[in-house]
Write a structure and sequence with these properties.
- The protein is α/β, with parallel strands linked by helices.
- The chain has helices at residues 3-20, 53-66, 108-112, 117-128, 159-170, and strands spanning 40-48, 70-74, 83-88, 93-98, 101-107, 179-182.
- A hairpin with a 2-residue loop joins β4 (93-98) and β5 (101-107).
- α2 (53-66) packs across α4.
- It is globular and about 40 Å long.
Length: 183
């Protein structure tokens, strides 16, 4: 993590904590021995994402810039990925097997209709990170998906979406039921 990213993450976290607590200071999440919690590393395999590989990498980078509790990184040879990303001719969708694990389909149907590929990738990765669709919704909400219209190219999660991911990954990770999202 770069120094600039670490400073941005710290500032965002402190501001969010102040807003959540009405201005009262709160401690950052910590291990039992008092050390700060490390980000959970989730690997993704975009080898089946065809023409969407760059969009998937951009979507992962956006989440890495936006939250501190998760780092999405490409899978290394011989490693098993938490997230598998594939391209198909259908509508984009995601299926989770548990929090931080599942499959994303980068559907060409939405792209052919004019939707932004980076927004699609970031949105579908948001599902894997535990976020539901927020429909209908404005362009400022990444999880509004297609209801924001084809003119919406915003690939960034809003503060509420970021907070939900931070909360889901910053403590003890509870198992979540698998879910499917057809966007």
């Amino acid at each position: 993590m770069t120094l600039a990213k670490a400073a941005r993450v710290l500032l965002t976290t402190l501001l969010a904590a102040l807003l959540w607590t009405g201005g009262q200071a709160v401690a950052a999440p910590q291990e039992a021995d008092g050390r700060p919690l490390a980000a959970r590393v989730l690997t993704y395999d975009a080898s089946g994402s065809a023409e969407f590989a760059a969009a998937v990498a951009s979507g992962a980078a956006i989440w890495n810039e936006s939250v501190s509790s998760v780092d999405l990184v490409p899978v290394q040879a011989g490693q098993r990925a938490n997230i598998r990303v594939v391209a198909d001719d259908g509508w984009p969708r995601a299926q989770t097997t548990s929090l931080g694990n599942g499959t994303v389909w980068m559907g060409r149907q939405a792209v052919n209709e004019g939707y932004n590929t980076i927004r699609i990738a970031a949105h579908e990765l948001g599902h894997i990170l535990g976020l539901p669709d927020i429909k209908p919704g404005p362009c400022s909400s990444l999880m509004s998906g297609s209801t924001a219209g084809v003119s919406c190219t915003n690939p960034y999660p809003n503060s509420s979406e970021r907070s939900r991911v931070e909360s889901a990954f910053s403590g003890a990770l509870a198992a979540r039921a698998p879910a499917s999202y057809l966007d």
